[in-house]
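Lecture notes, structural biology module. Today: joint structure prediction for complexes of two components.
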Amino acid sequence: MTALHDLSFSIGPGEVVGVVGESGSGKSTLLRALAGLLTPRAGTLEVNGSAVPWPCGRRSQDIRREIQIVFQNPDASLNPRQSVGAIIDHPLRKFRPGLDTDQRRRRILEVFGQLRLSPDLLERYPAALSGGQRQRVALARALIADPAVVLCDEITSALDVSVQASILELLGELRRASGLAMIFVTHDLGVLRAVADRALVLEAGHVRETGVVSQLLETPRHEYTTTLVRSIPDPAAHHAEQHQGGSDETRVPRRLRRRPRLDGLRAGEAGHGRGRAGRRPLRYR
Amino acid sequence: MRPPVLLSAHGLSAGYRDGAGIRQILADVDLDLPENRIVGLAGESGCGKSTLALAMAGYRPPGLRLLGGSVTFRGETITGLSTRRLRRYWGRRIAYLPQDTATALNPALRIGRQIAEVFQLHKGLDRRDALAAGADMLGRVGIGDPERAMHRYPHEFSGGQQQRIAIAIALGPGPEVVILDEPTTGLDVTVQALVNALIVDLIRAQRMTALYVSHNLALLAVLCDELRILYAGQVVEAGSAEQVYFTPEHPYTSGLVAAVPHHLDGKPVRGIGGTPPQSVVLDSCAFGPRCGFRAEGCAVPVPLALRPNGREVRCVRAGEPALAAARVTDAAFGNGAAAGLPAPGNPAPLLAATGVSVSSPTLAGP
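The predicted structure, tokenised, for the full assembly:
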């Protein structure tokens, strides 16, 4: 569990706020606090202008419905002994007790349609689904009772790139269709760019930078954000570098010119993500 | 002029026993690793990348059947050799670095013993020299205070450090070929960048030849000289890393490129619908069912054809303008995510957290 230090942020209706940082930065701690799974030492939470207690057990049924969470690994978050239908039905019974069986079934099929899940899957068990299907079932469970905000904890990082891309596409559609607000934790800046409007950069429990995602990534102001951005392989920049005709043509092959210095690497050894910002790793941006 | 080929697969076919039959995983794969080159191998999970990577080292996982073809190292066939004879290649001439290096290190042995062993075994050094060489190598991969590190156990290091130690053990004795199977998956982004830079640095400095397996095409485009795309156990596109990444000619490659979100352009990400087939498809184009350019000519076996521009592509429609036009070009898209959405800093927040501090694990009651 990573500590958090005096962190403040807000999210508007239909907005997607990204939270980026490396392991140990406090990303998941923040989500767990918002979901009511742990109680911060200090700090307040407001939903729609009214104060909400931290522990989930002291929250009203309605607030619990409003804030839903999706975890990284659907294998761990879906009960293997329940059919997909039972998994999805449970929150609906709990949060929408007024609905009868027919109405619940209609709602389930509606959400399944949005998430491009076949109704045939309702009879199956999580083990019989692919990784992408399982994560979409986990999303369906979060969306079924019409929450105000969905907390997403690295929900695509365990998936293949092509499956990740279809989930990202789907999230875009959901936003356009229903104005879904999300707090999206990720360590992948490409994913951040694809889903989020604004973002917080967290390092060791401190907010290092906040801002509109495009600006944050194109012109990072904090040293740590710069380090993160430079760590992403950038074929276009690499390509440009390989093909620029330099007048100072030396005997060193181009690809070897900008190699990392290992002594710097040693200096940065002790901490996570500190003391590395000034160096440019090999052919990364 | 191409440098001589060091490690090479010729028409390699393999499959796993599946009940009474065999589920074929690799079909007639040719893969050359030219000397001093880094070749990238990409594809989705389940396309046979790891099976091929292991087969290139001459290793046959339990249950895998070799159905045809061979792997040669400097012209000598290594497929089908006994484990005892393969040990003459492993470590010394062909090194393998797996994805999860936490399992590559023995948790019960100190680092010093594990790294000295490879120098004793492959370099014939005595214990003292081997320990010195090991400490030197740990220093080169950026482990601080190598002398002390030699006395510690794997669990005393972070994931990134363990990965660097595994790299030191694999690359220390200076193998001629190194096979890297997603060596940085699961590490933090900044650590990934450092570890990859380190790997390439060591490979270039020691003039090694490498096969780098990853599903991240952007990473391979930056790290590798050449790129091979594997789909359902077949190579579907081969060429220089630059060509394959920037001007993919196979629709599957275009799909992979379009699927990776990029942090600097707001281009929309596109998934590839469907999943790869469970086993190889030989009677038609394996990618056909997922392909947006499927035509009548796709219902026959499609060979990996050398195109006039020097590219190798397994697609009957390769080179058609329609395919090229469908590529996602970086410049063609504006700011995707933020377009047409509510302005940030909405005056009436839906949810607001203020001054949140967490100090110790305090679990909420139900």
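Point to remember: Chain B has two domains: 1-93+175-278, 102-173.
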